[in-house]
Amino acid sequence: MSGKLPISTTSGTDEFVKGLWRDNPVFVQVLGMCPVLAVSNTARNALAMGLATLFVLLMSNIVISSLRRFIPKQVRIATYILIIATFVTVVDYVIQAISLDLHKALGAFISLIVVNCLILGRAEAFASKNSVARSILDGLGMGVGFTFALLCLGAVREILGAGSLFGIELFHEGYQDWVVMILPSGGFFTLAAWLLVFNWAKQRKELTKEERAAAAAASARLEVLR
Amino acid sequence: MNGVQVAAPPSVWQMYRSMVGVGLLCGLLIVSVFLVTRPVIERNKAEALQRAIFQVLPDARSSATFRLDGESFAPLEGEAAGELVYAGYAEDGSLIGLAIEAQGMGYQDVIGILYGYSFEQDAIVGIRVLESKETPGLGDKIETDDEFLKNFERLDVSLTAASEIMNPIVFVKHGQKTDPWQVDGITGATISSKAIANILSRSTAYWIPKIRRGLDDFRRTG
């Protein structure tokens, strides 16, 4: 962090949308892998973990960006962690109040939101340099993108591994559960498959863009020749 | 200095002010959320405890809470405070056993368990982890490992004539269990499974003699 900081010049909607797709925290930035792999064994767990992270990310972004002029850079990391840990504790109590079973299913991973590098990453890279409004949009976008990614993994793993989605049975009795998908190794398989899909889509998009540019250049040359 | 302008470092006071200020605000926030959610969490925990009682005493159909008053047990009235045990009764009202809460240090944090003690079998007949922050995938096997949980289908805690535990519960390494009072550990979760054995050993040494002496306190009159 130097004195002169690059202020984001993109539009507000872009601030939100970038986290959903172009800079998706899981599929593009590959951040916060520990909860992504560990608690995406069912869609319900994935959704709960995603929402908990979204809340912490949003609140810490708001507080850090409103205090950004007040925090000396020498103690900034310690202060950020303090703020993040506070909201994680709040989420921990709230989840206990909502459902003890859910709290048990998420287990130690709630406390581990503190060290999710996505949150500290957004605090350091974005909230500490941008206005509160932009930080809210950024937090929302990244949080929703993270939740979306967790749901992508959780849904696939639950459907294949338990034959259900959000606890609702999908198949006939005869369906043989693919248990490995529920186990940690299934998390790696599913993540790899999704990364493959995302990279393939990205590559295709870039290719078509290049082709279009090449075609435009060719027709322009033709015009000149005529 | 090479002509580069370096911003003056903030004074110690500034750093101190921001850290303490943020810490104070965070503390306030945590305490207020804690106070707001506490009644709900306590109600959830009481419900979970009720469910767990019937899990560790599978034959029980109803339960009642008792408090230790000196040397005897009295039915709990009013607020839940003091040292509590939960008696389980069969459909005809006969006493089946007791569910007892116990706690001890695990690998990460305190482990809280509830275990069922059967009078008839003079043994622990079920155990349920109420609270644990053990390592996911390793230490948390104490809740899911079938082989480990088999230890507690019948874990001997019979008393001597002098009303002490005849064979205190001991921990043995995986696959070395020979006697009904030994707890067969989990490979990869040694500390957590040992913690369970220690918690049970301490708790039974305290409770079982008292409970045996006060057996009549739990019987339903009429």
Please compute the radius of gyration of chain B using only Cα atoms: 24 Å
Between the first and last Cα atoms of chain B, what is the distance in angstroms? 94 Å
Low-confidence stretches of chain A: 1-5
Got a strand count of chain A?
2
Q: Which sheet architecture does the biggest sheet of chain A show? A: 2 strands, antiparallel
Helix content, binned percent of chain B: 25-40%
* Uncertain segments of chain B: none
The main sheet of chain B comes to: 7 strands, antiparallel
Taken in chain order, the helices and strands of chain B follow as: HEEEEEEHHEEEHH
Number of domains of chain A: 1
Q: Please give the oligomerization state of what you see.
A: heterodimer
Strand content of chain A: under 5%
Q: Can you offer a commentary on this structure?
A:
A two-stranded antiparallel ribbon of chain A has the order 1-2. Chain A has helices spanning 12-20, 33-38, 43-66, 76-98, 100-106, 117-127, 132-162, 184-225; strands at 164-165, 168-169. Chain A has one domain. The model of chain A is unreliable at 1-5 (pLDDT under 50). In chain A, helix 4 (76-98) packs across helix 6 (117-127). In chain A, 68% of the residues lie in helices and 2% in strands. Chain B is of the alpha+beta class. Chain B has one domain (45-218). In chain B, the strands form two sheets. A seven-stranded antiparallel β-sheet of chain B has the order 2-1-3-4-5-6-7, sandwiched between helices. The mean pLDDT of chain B is 86. Classes of the chains: A mainly alpha (226), B alpha+beta (222). At the A-B interface, helix 4 of A face helix 1 of B.
